[in-house]
Design a protein that fits this description.
Structural class: mainly beta
Mean pLDDT: 83
Shape: flat
Bound molecules: zinc ion
Distance between the termini: 24 Å
Order of helices and strands: HEEHEEEEEEEHEEEE
Largest sheet: 5 strands, mixed, barrel
């Protein structure tokens, strides 16, 4: 799934031939091609200065790093609400709500699969068409992921892969999955860099649909697991701090003093609990 989305985003690179046709401007009006950004693929020979190159190349710049679960556990549907079982309806609802935010609707057998990036709402205004439904946009999105792993964007340029055509000036709102940072080599066609040929490194989002967090959605989720869907969800679980034994401080005996010194616990910072990313596999 991840590969397909990335290939879709980067399609032009792997297709080999840039599909953006070179729009030849009048020879006199052409601005000299600028080598504004270090690292931008640029022919070193003198010809580069007079040949207008309008091709667009999108390459991954920095892939994202999802949180790694520090521990795993299993939630067995067959044990739901059974005596002595930890599996409760309330916990299943909580796991499903988390899963709904971490999964995308797609063409897989279950109808959905685990998202490979943080999902957030992206408000956008299209600045430039990059071809194949990919756009450079002015965008805004709230922070997403545990501990706001994906920082919020405000008036930020971002690369979007939409599931529908759009044109410059269009505005809208999508549910977007962050797929990392992409490097886009392009001739910019919007202010204030209009006409400059350079590489922009920007956060990239793929438009997607998420699972519906509703009773019907939950039932579909349960059915798909009972029919063999491989489902796991990563959540942050609060567990007592091991370092201080859940006290928030560490005792230090002082010679000749009746009372111990209380040193603040450096692991939980006095909170008594720590957050432990936990992967829960949900099985029939
Ligand atoms: Zn502690």
């Amino acid at each position: 799934m991840k590969m397909r989305l990335l290939l879709a985003l980067l399609g032009m690179t792997f297709a080999g031939l840039p599909t953006a046709t070179a729009q030849t401007t009048t020879a006199l009006g052409t601005k000299p091609v600028e080598t504004a950004t270090a690292g931008a693929a640029k022919p070193a020979d003198g010809k580069a200065a007079i040949v207008e190159d309008d091709s667009i190349v999108i390459t991954p710049f920095r892939s994202l790093t999802l949180p790694v679960a520090k521990t795993t556990k299993t939630f067995q549907l067959a044990k739901l609400n059974k005596p002595l079982a930890t599996e409760t309806t309330k916990d299943l609802q909580r796991l499903f709500s988390a899963y709904a935010l971490q999964s995308i609707v797609d063409g897989s057998p279950a109808g959905f699969s685990k998202a490979t990036g943080y999902i957030t709402t992206v408000n956008y205004s299209i600045l430039q068409d990059l071809g194949d439904n990919r756009f450079m946009a002015k965008a805004a999105w709230p922070a997403a992921g545990p501990n706001d792993a994906l920082a919020a964007g405000v008036d930020a340029w971002a690369v979007l892969l939409l599931d529908h055509p759009a044109k410059v000036g269009d505005t809208g709102k999508i549910t977007g999955m962050h797929v990392g940072t992409a490097a886009v080599l392009l001739t910019v066609k919007f202010a204030p860099l209009d006409g400059k040929r350079l590489t922009l490194r920007r956060e990239a989002f793929v438009e997607c649909a998420t699972l519906e967090d509703s009773p019907a959605g939950l039932q579909k989720f349960i059915d798909s697991i009972n029919h063999g869907a491989d489902v796991s969800v990563t959540t942050n679980e609060l567990i007592p701090c091991k370092k201080c034994g859940g006290l928030g401080f560490i005792r230090q005996t002082v010679k000749g003093q009746l009372l111990d010194n209380r040193l603040p616990c450096t692991v939980c910072d006095g909170a008594k609990t720590v957050v432990l990313p936990t992967e829960t596999k949900i099985i029939p």
